[in-house]
Specification:
The chain has 34 helices and 26 strands. It has 884 residues and is of the alpha+beta class. A hairpin with a 5-residue loop joins strand 12 and strand 13. The longest helix has 42 residues.
Length: 884
């Protein structure tokens, strides 16, 4: 029979299972043996790749391999070393960008390691000694108090008002009260293990003694580190699309080149070496060698825009992944909420009030909540103490209650500290008239046992059953809204008892009221959720907090309908479902409460298996594995731990959930612009391929490699990059997410590439035909030279004119605006100038094997170039009408 978990064992059992004496602790010799057996209390780091390995990994991409082959062919076969150099430069630049931007899992592990507390106070050989926490072993007896960091996973055997803040691990915003009693059940969630302390959590109140039950990678934090180390890298939709595009293009190019070579040899059009060079030239012309660099530049420009809007991208493809996101699975604490307890409701004089309404004069409720309170206010205004207590002081400050001045007038003279059994805290203050105010706060049900009267303004009445039931009903109603409720009571006594304890001062008290607190949602979060839904994105909440709290916040944000219990599931309920069952039911749930880190990963994986693109947001250590498993992990820059940031693809500098929606819009725009660039590049290259193919088949003089290379250089690069900064098209956030199944050819782009590429080729061939039949010339050689020059000029200009067409796939050029994009206008002018200089500037003619054209020939060239705009506009118009 397997040994029961530490939290399910009694104190005697835990001491026996770890073989330690509580009074003396382990001996130094025994501790040394255990350290040698189990290793140091430290986190194992994943195997790190060297910079060289990371650089070489960038060349495993299929498209990159294609480009390297193209560079070799261009250099060693075609002897165009300049082109080979350009291709290699593009590939190397792309690899450098990849290494620089790559998200490294070891950063998260390093951050976890840095969180470890440096020292621990332990009993060793009947003495209390301070040792490095890395030297702790299972069985060590550790002493902790307020301000300490828990150095390893421990089972508490002594507790004096001990509270631990575990939000980074569990997602629960309120410190957990710890006890020593064994817990029943073998599947108690982390957040409910009230007799355990977890490595790297913070002691906020009291003191305790615990026995170490797990160290290093066996701790809960260690399990998270292991999950991060073992998480598989997900391929982004952009990476998958580029890889698929590279394979498709390579196959098509090889087939076309083979056909040209075969037909040419069959027709005996050229010698074998010449025909081989022609086929290779065609293949080089077809490969969009600038595509990886252009995509990288567009993504980099997108990261700059996102950074200005507080979304810091750590991994370039994440920019585009946002645009295809279908699920946003968000942590609650610190992401959707403020991670700051805030007073929301106050109940006094028999009525419930909003906190903003304040408290009527004469009621001691405000005084009690500030007096029965251990919050320390620093000189800079910051508050130290339990979040619940600091919320009460902060509320008083907002209402104009000067706690320092009030305490100076009524100083504390005695107290009965908080006790986890009676759940009350009492302080006694000397009043100016010599009497004493007893101020008590605590759990309403426990407080009411000690109350006999109730205050209504300046009067005090006997508390009857009806009044008591009304208070209990109000408490229950507030609790159902996920508010943490505290009751306040007081009495005025003539003298402080000789012995101050619960029996002598906490009796016959006067009920003053109730205070309801919650970690409230961020003000902008509800609007962001609504915008996400409008964009076809499903927002979800995944939290370690209690079910009632999660359900209430989700209802207030609009993630679920208020009271929709069926959409809420807990981690324990999730454990009862097999993976197959959960896969069938995953659509039902929008809120996951009381979950562990492995649950979050399981949820992300379940949606990914359904083919969905999942974004996960979070700020805690417990979020890190899911952040890394998601298609895009989004960490919080302010409240987020270094662990969560290290595991993320993007970090929100302002911790603002609405920034995610803004980033999604930018991501959609980036994909749309990449799609436009690809449409432009591929249709242009198809036009070049068709021109060369048909010229070869018809036996015409074909364009030289220098023509194709120069056209590729001047007309591909600048306009394609400029298309990457096109403004956002209207209504982009009203469209459904693209999802994982879409690709660069979706939405009619594939068809457009084909027919527009064919159109470019046909127009170019038409101009060449006009050139060779031009009546002015009598010499055949001159006629063919001019025709070739006209074809060269047409092929270049037609691509520049076509760049205007792809500013929108479906909308009219005149709707999206001719000159809205200044960078685009400059790019077209620069490309036109570089193309024209090869024809118009003396000295370049011989270099590029072209002739000077007269104005008649230029009119034909310009007419064909502008003709593609007219034809595409007509086709778009017909398509829009047919769609309607």
């Amino acid at each position: 029979m397997a040994e029961r978990p530490a939290y399910a064992q009694s104190t005697e059992e835990i001491l026996q299972s770890t073989q330690v004496d509580l009074a003396t602790g382990l001996s130094q010799d025994e501790a040394a043996k255990r350290l040698a057996r189990d290793g140091e209390n430290a986190l194992a780091k994943g195997e790190k790749k060297t910079m060289v390995q990371r650089f070489l990994d960038q060349f495993k991409d299929f498209m990159i391999i294609v480009l390297l082959v193209a560079a070799l062919i261009a250099g060693f076969v075609v002897h165009e070393w300049a082109d080979a150099g350009i291709i290699l430069a593009v590939v190397i630049l792309n690899a450098i960008f990849g290494v620089f931007q790559e998200s490294k899992a070891e950063e998260a592990i390093d951050a976890l390691a840095k969180m470890a507390t440096p020292d621990a106070h332990v009993r060793r050989g009947n003495n209390v000694v301070t040792i490095p926490s890395s030297q702790l072993v299972v069985g060590d007896v550790v002493l902790v108090e307020a301000g300490d960091v828990v150095p390893a996973d421990m089972r508490f055997v002594e507790s004096a008002n001990l509270k631990i803040e575990e939000s980074a691990l569990t997602g629960e915003s309120v410190p957990v009260e710890k006890s020593v009693e064994a817990l029943s059940g073998d599947k108690v969630g982390i957040g409910d293990r009230t007799n355990m302390g977890f490595m790297n959590s913070n002691i906020t109140y009291g003191r305790g003694v615990g026995v170490v039950v797990a160290t290093g990678m066996n701790t809960e934090v260690g399990r998270i580190a292991g999950m991060i180390n073992n998480a598989e890298e997900t391929t982004t939709p952009l990476q998958a699309n580029l890889s698929a595009l590279g394979r498709t293009l390579t196959i098509m190019i090889l087939i076309i080149a083979a056909i040209v070579f075969g037909v040419g040899m069959w027709r005996d059009a050229m010698s074998l070496p010449e025909m081989f060079l022609t086929a290779i030239s065609l293949a080089v012309a077809a490969i969009p060698e600038g595509l990886p660099a252009i995509v990288t530049i567009i993504l980099a420009l997108g990261t700059q825009k996102m950074a200005k809007k507080n979304a810091l991208v750590r991994k370039l493809p994440a920019v585009e992944t946002l645009g295809s996101t279908e699920i946003i699975a968000s942590d609650k604490t610190g992401t959707l909420t403020q991670n700051k307890m805030t007073v929301e409701k106050v109940y006094y004089d028999g009525a419930l009030h909003d906190a903003a309404d304040g408290i009527a004069g004469g009621n001691l409720l405000m005084t009690i909540m500030n007096f029965a309170n251990d919050t320390k206010v620093q000189q800079d205004g910051t508050m130290l103490g339990d979040p619940t207590e600091t919320a009460l002081v902060a509320y008083g400050k907002r209402q104009g209650f000067d706690v320092d001045a009030e305490l100076a007038a009524m100083p504390r003279v005695a107290e009965v500290p908080f006790d986890s059994e009676r759940k009350l805290m009492t302080t006694i203050h000397q009043m100016p008239d010599g009497r004493f105010l007893v101020a008590t706060k605590g759990a309403p049900d426990q407080l009411l046992k000690r109350v006999s009267q109730i205050a209504f303004g300046q009067t005090v009445n006997t508390l009857d059953d009806a009044g008591r039931n009304q208070i209990l009903a109000t408490n229950q109603a507030l609790a159902k809204q996920a508010l943490r409720v505290l009751g306040m009571a007081y009495q005025i006594i003539d003298a402080v008892p000789a012995v101050v304890n619960t029996d002598t001062v906490e009796h016959d008290m006067i009920f003053a009221g109730l205070v309801g607190m919650i970690d409230p949602e961020r003000p902008e979060a509800a609007d962001a959720v609504a915008q996400a839904k409008a964009a076809g994105i499903r927002p979800m909440m995944i939290t370690g907090d209690h079910q009632d709290t999660a359900e209430a916040i989700a209802g207030r944000l609009g993630i679920i309908e208020p009271g929709d219990d069926a959409a809420v599931i807990t981690g324990a309920q999730l454990d009862e479902q097999t993976d197959e069952e959960f896969a069938k039911n995953v659509d039902k749930y929008s809120v996951y409460a009381r979950v562990a880190p492995e649950h979050k990963v399981r949820i992300v994986n379940a949606w990914q298996k359904k083919g969905k693109v999942v974004a996960m947001t979070g700020d805690g250590v417990n979020d890190a594995p899911a952040l890394k498993a998601a298609d895009i992990g989004i960490g919080m820059g302010i409240t987020g731990t270094e662990v969560s940031k290290g595991a993320s693809d993007m970090v929100l500098a302002d911790d603002n959930f609405s920034t995610i929606v803004t980033a999604v819009e930018e991501g959609r725009k980036v994909f749309s612009n990449i799609q436009k660039s690809i449409q432009y590049l591929l249709s242009a290259n198809l036009g070049e391929v068709l021109t060369l193919f048909m010229m070869t088949m018809l036996g015409w003089d074909i364009l030289a490699p220098v023509h194709i290379l120069w056209i590729n250089l001047v007309t591909d690069t600048f306009p394609a990059i400029a298309l990457g900064v096109e403004p956002t098209e209207p209504g982009i956030m009203k469209q459904k997410p693209r999802g994982r199944k879409s690709n660069f050819f979706s939405g009619g782009v594939g068809q457009a590439v084909i027919w527009q590429g064919l159109l470019e080729g046909l127009l170019t061939l038409g101009v060449y035909y006009i050139g060779i039949t031009w009546p002015v010339h009598t010499a055949s050689a001159a006629m063919h030279a001019d025709a070739l020059t006209m074809a060269y000029a047409t092929l270049g200009l037609i691509q520049l004119f076509h760049a205007f067409n792809v500013k929108s796939i479906h909308q009219s050029l005149f709707t999206v605006g001719l000159f809205r994009n200044r960078a685009f206008n400059l790019a077209i002018l620069a490309s036109f100038a570089l193309l024209a200089v090869t024809i118009l500037v003396p000295g370049f003619n011989g270099l590029f094997h072209v002739t000077s054209l007269d104005w008649h020939q230029w009119a034909v060239v310009l007419g064909a170039g502008f003709g593609i705009v007219v034809i595409v506009e007509i086709v778009k118009f017909v398509q829009r009408k047919m769609k309607k």
